[in-house]
Design brief:
homodimer; 157 residues; alpha+beta; HIT family, subunit A; 32% helix; globular
Chain lengths: 157, 157
């Protein structure tokens, strides 16, 4: 399927890619409010999950579950949020988002307005955020290892 | 797995159930802002998708994709949003949400604040909403029929 010129997800950004194969890429959302926020982006410009074939959908979801699993092991979030929305960019991309009680939206969705935090809560978040950012290299390493164990994996050329 | 007393999703509400089997139920979210907003709720109190077995996860997702597919066929949304969040109620429930350009949040996520609408936009939404509500019985009927075609289906007893 050809790229759609106006679509930002039809252009790849190697700087944020953690892993890829022939069909999809796993990217670091680089969102300081949610360290470890990871995306799984289908390479082709497809809008809905039910536009994919059964085999494509299975492959994409198996990658989403590897991301969730490694994210839980490495970052110990209190909850994982997974979502495929695409109202603004109708090109399949899954959000896999680790959540913590201290984060700026908990327990609301990350798309809700940020809540008010006391100076003490802000300080606690900054300390926690720094700890989490220190885990990113290990998280990405574990994620690449786990994804390369997927059945049928062959490296993108 | 036993029910968790404080969890609202550990109690079933037959009034909103569209379909169910031994493992899960499909419910009408009855949200007037998003006619056709449908949920897929796992019966057992499980928090994360990666707490399920592979077979359980496949079954749950296959139901989510049937919901998306029938919802597209019957209600023709401009986009479908699918999400498993659970920050407030950590008991697996998928949101499958039809979106339209006229809805109160488009193109933001449904969890974002409602945007301002002109009186003309409100009127257009009310006309559209009524049309959509008139399609609900057919949507639910088509959904039940499609779900009963799933491989391995047997009716809940």
């Amino acid at each position: 399927m050809s790229a759609t010129p106006s679509c930002p997800l039809c252009t790849r950004n190697p700087l944020v890619e953690i892993w890829s194969d022939d069909q999809l890429r796993v990217t670091d959302a680089q969102d300081p409010d949610f360290p470890g926020f990871t995306r799984v982006v289908w390479h082709a410009h497809v809008s809905e999950m039910t536009d994919l074939t059964h085999a494509e959908r299975e492959h994409l979801m198996s990658v989403v579950w590897v991301v969730e699993s490694v994210l839980r092991n490495e970052l110990s979030p209190v909850k994982v949020n997974v979502a495929q929305l695409g109202n603004q960019v109708p090109h399949i991309h899954w959000h896999v988002i680790p959540r913590w009680r201290l984060d700026s939206r908990f327990p609301d969705a990350v798309w809700a307005p940020a809540r008010e935090r006391t100076p003490e809560q802000n300080l606690a978040w900054e300390v926690f955020q720094e700890q989490q950012l220190n885990l990113m290299a290990d998280y990405h390493h574990a994620l690449r290892n786990a994804l390369e164990q997927l059945p049928g994996y062959r490296a993108a050329t």
